[in-house]
Structures are given as C-alpha cells and as structure tokens.
Specification:
mainly alpha; about 70% helix; 2 domains; 3-stranded antiparallel sheet; about 5% strand
Length: about 400
C-alpha cells in the first residue's frame, strides 16, 4: 500500500500547487477578476498557509507580523522531521534488542524483498553483480566478484543465509527512518515554499507615490525604507538566504553531485522519495516545479505593466506545458494526466484575463478547479484499487508456486 500512498501524495501535491498558484493571481496580476472566483478560492485559504490573513478580527496584525509568523513554518517542519528521526532510531534499537530468532528470519525476508525492489534500478526483476555488491557494501560486507544474476527469491535466500540478520535489519530499518524523516521534512518544505517565498517577494515590492512617500504594495500601513521596514529587512534577508535560496540549492547540489548514483542503494534508500515517482532522466522535476511556482507567484510581482505580467505568466505556463509533454516525468500515467490538467488549468486562468468581463467567466474558472479536484479523487481511488489488485495477483501467484513445489 506504500506505493499507492506515494501516488496519492503526488496527486495531493499537484492540487496544492495548483491552488497556491491560483490564490496568488489576484495579488500578482493587479487586474480586476470575477469576485465569485476568489470567493471560491477562500475556502482553500489554509493551503496558502497565511493563517493570520484568515483572522481579520485580530488587531495590530500587519504584513510584517504575518511574514514572521509564516517564516516560522520551516523551523516547525525541521523540528517535526528531527523528532521523527529520534523516535524512529529509538524504536529500531528497541526492536533489534527484543527480536527473537524465530521472527528474525521473517523480518530479514521482508527487508530483503524491499531491498531487492530498491536495488533493481533497471527494473529488470533481476539483481546483477553491481547491484548486489552495492547492497553488500551498504551492510559492511566485502565485495564479491562474479555474482550471477539472481531473481527476487534468490536474493532473499542469499540475505537469509548470510547469517547477518541484525546487521541487515539495522541498516535497512535505519535507512527507512532517515528516508521517512527526510521525506516528511522535504515534502512539507516543498509545500510551504511557495507561500513563504511569495511573502518574500512582496516585502521588496514597494509603490512610490511621491519621492518621500513609498509604501509596501501588500500593506499600505507600512512605509518602505523607514524604521519598521528597515528593522525587518535583516530578518527577511536571513530567511531569503537560508530557506528561499539554500533549500532548492541544496536539493540541486545533492541531485547533481549524485546524478550517476541516484539508484545506488546508499543514495536511493535515503533520498529516493524525491525522485521515485519520476522516470530516469527526470529526477530534477521537483526543482522544475519550484521554479515554475516561484515565477508565477513571486517574480511577476516586480513586473509593473499588467500586460507584461500577463505575457510573462503565459510564457511560463506554456513552456511548462511543453516541458511536461516532452519529458513526461511521471512514472504513473494517472498522475501524469492530472499534472497535465493542472498545468493546462493554470494556463487557462491567465488566458481568461482577455474575457474576464464576460458573463460566467468566474463560474468557468471555478468549474476547471472542481473538475481537477474530482479527477484527482478518482485518480487516488484508482491508484489504490490498482495496487490492491496487483497485490492479490502476486499473492495468487505465490500460492500457486508453493503448490507446484
């Protein structure tokens, strides 16, 4: 069921990204839109992570206060990931200490099955000499030359007969804890990246009324380059460098540095979640998505002309559509077509600017989002059902093979 859950998470992320881009249109384009559409988007305000904006009854809450509150989210995410890591290691230590010899072999078989799926980088259903030696290296065993290709059953048998049960389990369980902790942290950081960076861009977007009067476009109660703005500047720059720049740069550096070994056990066991849903050669797709969202929700803020804003957004949307159709990064075709719909939906939002004053345009925009949500729900159900059917087939084949034996 883990594979189905990953597909559900991918579909969920696509919808969150789409809603975050939609929510930014009003503040970035500076064009009057059908009010009914943004009333509809207000139901999904939580996806924009701007909790303070959803509490108009609070006095004394200005843009800077909202930004400080939102900038705490990456810290909270890192604390959650760290806590998950500590508790996971502690749980593994207890499990290894208390495991009986009777259960050891069964646990090693389960672990070996999962490891085989991971090291079979070419999806040939066999593990070759290099793939097996990568595994042996991870558990501290010496390299063995001329290992014959083995299927999953042979690999499991080899792992059980090594008499290195605790060694294998400790490595594999620890890698799963590290991977799960990183998965939780990175996925949440990816989700909150757009709302936080949007605030960063808005902080530097000032509107000059006269030479002396320069106000923040996002909050006209704040004068740019005055005491309150200047005091906040250092903190904003700190968040910009540590999160907005270093986070994607770190992901890019890690993927680029290990680009030739992304499917080696030592790399895939820890960071495979970042690209496991994408085809080989498109492992950098998450960075493509960060760049697309940043340009649509942030960079457009600095383009003063509404026409140029629109042209820039349409160029970004159309290049993204070309990229997703050319690279077709998603392994799962259902996820691919849902992503395709989300990209096309974003494009339609900006095209709708030309007919925004016509009747029913707002209703049409709402319909596009509702269709995406409905298709996504169907896609999630389909992914879960498909995997259940596959698991039943595997179980039937396993029972049939046992009867033949």
């Amino acid at each position: 069921m883990l594979a189905a859950w990953k597909e559900v998470v991918n579909i969920l992320k696509i919808n969150i990204d789409s809603m975050q881009i939609n929510a930014a249109i009003e503040s970035t384009m500076l064009i009057s839109w059908p009010r009914i559409y943004f009333d509809f988007l207000s139901f999904f305000f939580i996806l924009d992570m701007d909790i303070f904006s959803a509490m108009p009854c609070l006095d004394g809450i200005n843009f800077i206060t909202k930004f400080i509150g939102m900038s705490m989210l990456p810290i909270v995410v890192c604390l959650i990931g760290s806590l998950e890591l500590i508790l996971g290691f502690r749980s593994n230590k207890t499990r290894l200490k208390n495991i009986s010899n009777e259960h050891m072999e069964n646990e090693v078989e389960i672990a070996a099955k999962e490891i085989f799926v991971m090291i079979d980088a070419d999806h040939s259903n066999t593990a070759d000499n290099d793939e097996v030696n990568d595994f042996l290296h991870c558990i501290g065993e010496p390299k063995v030359d001329d290992i014959s290709e083995m299927n999953q059953s042979q690999f499991i048998e080899m792992a059980v007969n090594m008499n290195k049960g605790k060694q294998i389990l400790k490595w594999w369980w620890d890698q799963r804890v590290i991977s799960q902790s990183l998965n939780t942290s990175v996925q949440l950081l990816l989700i909150i990246y757009t709302p936080v960076t949007k605030k960063l861009f808005q902080f530097f977007n000032c509107y000059r009324i006269t030479d002396e009067l320069i106000y923040l476009r996002a909050d006209f109660s704040i004068e740019c380059y005055k005491s309150e703005w200047n005091i906040s500047l250092l903190y904003v720059l700190f968040v910009t460098i540590i999160y907005a720049l270093c986070f994607p740069a770190t992901l890019f550096y890690y993927l680029f540095k290990n680009r030739k070994d992304l499917y080696a056990p030592r790399i895939q066991a820890r960071m495979g979640f970042l690209y496991s849903g994408y085809r080989p050669g498109t492992e950098f797709w998450e960075l493509h998505e960060l760049a697309r969202k940043t340009m649509l929700t942030g960079i457009t803020v600095y383009i003063q002309s509404p026409i140029f804003k629109l042209v820039f957004a349409l160029i970004v949307c159309n290049i993204s559509l070309i990229n997703i159709n050319y690279f077709q990064p998603h392994k799962n075709r259902t996820v691919f077509w849902i992503a395709q719909m989300a990209f096309l939906g974003a494009n339609l939002k900006y095209v709708a600017v030309f007919v925004r004053n016509y009747p029913l345009v707002g209703e049409f925009l709402i319909a596009t989002d509702i269709i995406l949500l409905l298709v996504s729900i169907i896609g999630c159900i389909y992914a879960i059902q498909t995997l259940r059917n596959k698991m039943k087939t595997i179980e039937r084949e396993r029972k049939a093979s046992k009867m033949l034996e």
